[in-house]
Design brief:
Number of helices of chain A: 22
Largest sheet of chain B: 5 strands, mixed
CATH class of the largest domain in chain B: Alpha Beta
Oligomer: heterodimer
Shape of chain B: globular
Helix content of chain B: 25-40%
Number of domains of chain B: 2
Largest sheet of chain A: 7 strands, mixed
Distance between the termini of chain A: 87 Å
Radius of gyration of chain B: 16 Å
Largest interface: A-B, 59 and 57 residues
Shape of chain A: globular
CATH topology of the largest domain in chain B: Ubiquitin-like (UB roll)
Structural class of chain A: alpha+beta
Radius of gyration of chain A: 28 Å
Number of helices of chain B: 6
Helix content of chain A: 25-40%
Number of strands of chain A: 28
CATH superfamily of the largest domain in chain B: Beta-grasp domain
Structural class of chain B: alpha+beta
Strand order of the largest sheet of chain A: 3-5-1-12-9-10-11
Chain lengths: 799, 163
């Protein structure tokens, strides 16, 4: 019998993670660890050309090679592979090419799969892949986003007559949520401040540490597919639909998954191909990518041009914002590709009270790797744009960047606040977060040092960068997703089962890949049911164990998934009540649930859920009509998004002689509502900050003029190392969310959203006195140095 | 095929391998030491770091035949290699747990092995020395903050996270 030595406040404690032991001792179940009897291995043959017609494929040499079982080309699977799914047609007239897993007659990006070799070992498959002889007829490739939007060569000639996939517009005047942008812009032109800027969101690569891997076992009644995915449930449904099989015949398992960041929020060609190869050969098949393959063919992120027009009065009070985006889809539409910019559409107004707002996004095809969700998905882009603009506005007005934000932000007493996009921000306290950040940062002293260094003409200049942010998390209320034409709901599912021993099994439809759900969920359930932290087992990531779910992305797991779990736990408690009354020979009305016990109010008489679970297991003496179980399911659909916010401050030193930027200090104050596990929250913030800093300073996916990915390995796609980064100061303010029982808001994306503009603002601030008002990302030494040289030359000419 | 004998986590294995077999593939596929993982193909990420005769190497950068006659310690044998018994962890593993220095955990085996080697060379490093010493190991989750704290904690130089 389990003892109920409950710590009453598991929630809020910095519990060390349950997940750690297996990860720290190498006892982990990565997909690539799986080896099944008779298993075959796949190697993909990929196009070296960005755009080409496939004239012929000669597989005879590969087929004849030692250990090769078969070779499949697009022609072999064209009737069985269907078209890979896009779940988010953002407009009714959205254009999209068919998306074959294996190209049939044309390739549209360098890296697209044209054949797959199936062999008895991974080495044999790779050796033989070199022997597949593909004759290509190269076609003109469109690589530049602006050229593609302007007509360019067609990315999909013969299939689409334009490179534009969709135009999506939100206008506050049309929506009735705000004023007319053009009228405000005209007024600002007359005597106010009008800022017109263009920013580039460079192409990024999510670069999760665990390469993607898929194993498919077709033996038995049910096909089992293991994948290093964030979305086992969505994958199961989409793969079944694409491959034309009942989803009940497919079980998807996401075992231990090594990071995702949106990069594993996808239904990939490789997953479908592994399934097709397994069905074709009748044998278990495995595919594990190389890192080069991952950088080339796992979906990329960001890649937008942002044209911005901001109207303000002379005091810096913002009157309107107009956003015109070009968003690079790459060659195809992935699962949510078209919707990524739309996730940012409602966030450009950020924490501010803009009276008028218009957003236009043109989604464009190019002959490059397709893009899709990457940590923050749309919201980092929006936050970057507005936070860069607020700095520019501060310069125009001649005030401190924090002051300009305060003049425009939603004051604490204005909550709940309906934004110019019509979203209801339920809670927030921008004043408190900013004050705390300013204090921890030593803002005034750093400003004084900056002034001294400028006065002294120090070759190493100090720059201070500010970013506030809010984001819409907890994806998402299903009716809102419906109104945005998303193909699914935003609910989450959970089950809570009391076991006869008094231990608890919790099944969640979210699918962790580093977030620590096993720990955090255990804390929440321990408090809720009055059981020990150690007695809670959290199960996830297997569609047979967890039959329903919407998986993990968009900072949704705690806000939506844990709420579902709490609802299920409530049902268990209520279900136990008549049994408790029966056992205690008491009137149900006299009972109260406290500390894990149903108790007769005002007495010591009571019984634990564990004892009641055993009673239902035996089922010898239950109240008339009670089913012999203490478990329950719940599916929860959120009523609103949650709105985390925060203020991040960054100090950088820029060597004006070399252009090199060095981070000196970084303070993050985040308001993510109530904290379940502060240690996990802090870890999410740290990691997010560095991913955002990486966009600001280091990372860029670069293609050459032929469309070849130049940054195709970790030598060239430069993830930050420990030596590039610093230690951070993190803190929280707490404005609980009012729309879930935990008061939680989500934290997965916050750091990444805030840090990019904070760092770029700091770099620009360091050199602004030299006449520089922008440096494109990533702000590499070469770019900073060039900007300084250019500014000096211009000033020389002006003299 | 070449016959090699390699001691992995205290057990001697004799196997026939293709000369081109990388140590990491030998460990994962022949020995079954899947705690050691592969994160890249250019020896940048360090996820496959093990100890060869007590010193850290990236096992994707060593041929299995080069390990012939040598001793390999992986993440699975690290604790035992310092005499830990039962459920006890190596001090670096314990510090990673205490300081929340891992999230998805994929880089963790390599990171721990590298950190252990770093502390062998320099038992009381500064933060800057820790950061330099881990430069060859990539992590995408933690931003390195808590990894650095963990290594300093293992060296007895720093308070633990969350305290």
């Amino acid at each position: 019998m389990t003892t109920t030595t409950t710590t009453p406040s598991e929630v809020g404690a910095s519990r060390r993670r349950k997940e750690d032991r297996r990860l720290l001792t190498g006892r982990t179940k990565w997909t690539d660890n799986l080896r099944l009897p008779g298993m075959l291995h796949l190697a993909m043959v990929r196009s070296p050309f960005a755009h080409a017609r496939i004239v012929s494929i000669d597989t005879s040499a590969a087929r004849a090679a030692a250990g090769v079982h078969t070779v499949l080309t697009g022609a072999d699977v064209k009737d069985s592979q269907g078209s890979l799914p896009c779940a988010w047609p953002i407009t009714p007239d959205q254009k999209a090419p068919a998306h074959p897993a294996i190209a049939v007659d044309r390739v549209a990006f360098a890296g697209e799969i044209v054949a797959v070799v199936v062999a008895r070992s991974a080495a044999a498959a790779r050796d033989a892949a070199e022997l597949v002889d593909v004759d290509y007829d190269e076609l003109p490739a469109v690589l530049d986003l602006k050229a593609a939007a302007a007509g360019g060569p067609l990315a999909h000639p013969g299939e689409l007559d334009s490179n534009v996939s969709a135009l999506w517009v939100f206008d506050s005047a049309e929506a009735g949520t705000g004023g007319d942008v053009e009228a405000e812009i005209a007024m600002a032109r007359e005597g106010g401040i009008l800022l017109e800027r263009e920013y580039r969101q460079q192409r990024l690569i999510p670069a999760f540490m665990e390469p993607r891997s898929v194993v498919c076992d077709p033996t038995g009644e049910q096909t089992v597919l293991w994948s290093a995915t964030q979305i086992p449930h969505i994958l199961r449904l989409m793969l079944a639909l694409t491959a034309g099989m009942p989803e009940s015949k497919l079980r998807v398992i996401a075992p231990d998954v090594g990071g995702g960041f949106g990069g594993k929020l996808q239904v990939t060609p490789e997953e479908l191909i592994t399934l097709l190869a397994a069905r074709h050969t009748g044998k278990p098949c495995k595919w594990t990518e190389t890192r080069s393959e991952s950088l080339l063919s796992a979906h990329h992120g960001r890649d937008q041009w942002q044209k911005l027009t901001l109207a303000a009065d002379r005091n810096g009070q913002v009157k309107a914002l107009k956003v015109q985006l070009l968003a690079d889809m790459g060659a195809y539409l992935g699962l949510v590709t078209p919707g990524v910019p739309i996730l940012g559409a409602f966030m450009y107004n950020a924490i501010y009270t803009f009276p008028a707002y218009r957003f236009e996004c043109t989604n464009v095809f190019t002959n490059k790797t397709w893009t899709d969700a990457y940590r923050g998905a749309g919201r980092p882009e929006a936050t970057f744009a507005i936070e860069r603009l607020m700095d520019e506005l501060a310069v125009e007005v001649g005030c401190d960047p924090l002051e300009i934000r305060e003049r425009n932000w939603i004051r604490h007493e204005q909550f709940p606040f309906t934004s110019v996009c019509g979203l209801e921000y339920d809670s927030g306290n921008y004043e408190a977060a900013t004050a705390k950040a300013k204090e921890l940062f030593g803002y005034d002293a750093l400003r004084a040092e900056q002034a001294a260094r400028r006065a002294a003409g120090d070759p190493v200049q100090l720059g201070l960068g500010v970013s506030t942010y809010t984001e819409m998390c907890g994806l998402a209320p299903s009716r809102v997703l419906g109104s945005l034409s998303y193909g699914a709901g935003g609910w989450e599912h959970a089950s809570v089962r009391m076991l006869p021993t008094g231990k608890v099994e919790v099944v969640t439809g979210s699918s962790a890949h580093g977030q620590g759900h096993e720990t955090a969920w255990s804390q929440i359930v321990a408090d809720k049911l009055g059981v020990a932290f150690e007695d809670v087992e959290v199960l996830h990531g297997d569609t047979q164990i967890s039959p329903k779910g919407m998986d993990t992305y968009g900072s949704r797991s705690l806000v939506v998934g844990a709420q579902a779990m709490l609802k299920a736990a409530d049902k268990v408690i209520e279900k136990a009540k008549p049994l408790a009354a029966h056992v205690l020979e008491a009137n149900p009305e006299d009972l109260e649930f406290t500390g894990g016990r149903w108790q007769v109010r005002g007495t010591d008489a009571g019984t634990t859920l564990g004892e009641l679970a055993l009673a239902t297991f035996a089922a010898h003496d239950l109240p008339e009509g009670m089913e012999p179980s203490l478990d329950a399911d719940a599916t929860y659909d959120p009523v609103n998004f949650s709105f985390p916010h925060g203020t991040h401050l960054c100090a950088v030193e820029v060597d004006t002689e070399t252009g090199a930027t060095r981070m000196r200090s970084y303070v993050a104050v985040d308001d993510v509502g109530n904290l379940v596990n502060p240690l996990i929250v802090e870890g999410q913030v740290h990691g997010g900050i560095v991913q955002g800093v990486a966009q600001a300073l280091w990372e860029e996916a670069v293609h050459d003029d032929s469309g070849t990915l130049v940054s195709g390995s970790f030598v060239d796609y430069t993830l930050p190392t420990a030596a590039d980064t610093i230690s951070f100061v993190t803190a929280n303010t707490v404005s609980p969310s009012t729309t879930n029982d935990l008061g939680a808001k989500g934290v997965g994306e916050a750091g990444c959203i805030a840090s990019t503009p904070a760092v770029v603002n700091a770099v620009v601030d360091a050199v602004r006195h030299l006449g520089i008002c922008d440096i494109p990302m990533p702000c590499t030494p070469a770019r900073v140095w060039s900007a300084i040289q250019r500014a000096q030359a211009e000033r020389g000419e002006a003299r | 095929m070449t016959r090699i004998t390699v001691t992995v986590d205290g057990v001697a294995y004799t196997d026939e391998v293709e000369p081109r077999t990388l140590l990491v593939h030998y460990l994962r596929e022949t020995v079954g030491a899947t705690g050691t993982v592969i994160g890249c193909d250019t020896s940048n990420c360090g996820a496959c770091t093990v100890h060869l005769d007590g010193r850290s190497v990236k096992s994707c950068n060593v041929l299995a035949v080069q390990a012939d006659g040598h001793e390999v310690t992986t993440i699975e044998g690290l604790a035992a290699s310092v005499g830990a018994t039962g459920d006890a962890l190596h001090p670096v593993q314990q510090a990673f747990h205490d300081c929340h220095a891992l999230q998805c955990g994929f880089c963790t085996p390599g990171m721990v092995m590298q950190a252990a080697d770093l502390l062998r060379d320099n038992p009381h490093p500064t933060e800057a020395e820790v950061r330099e010493g881990l430069e060859g190991n990539l992590c995408r989750c933690t931003g390195y903050h808590n990894i650095v704290r963990a290594v300093l904690a293992a060296a007895g130089n720093s308070p633990k996270a969350g305290e």
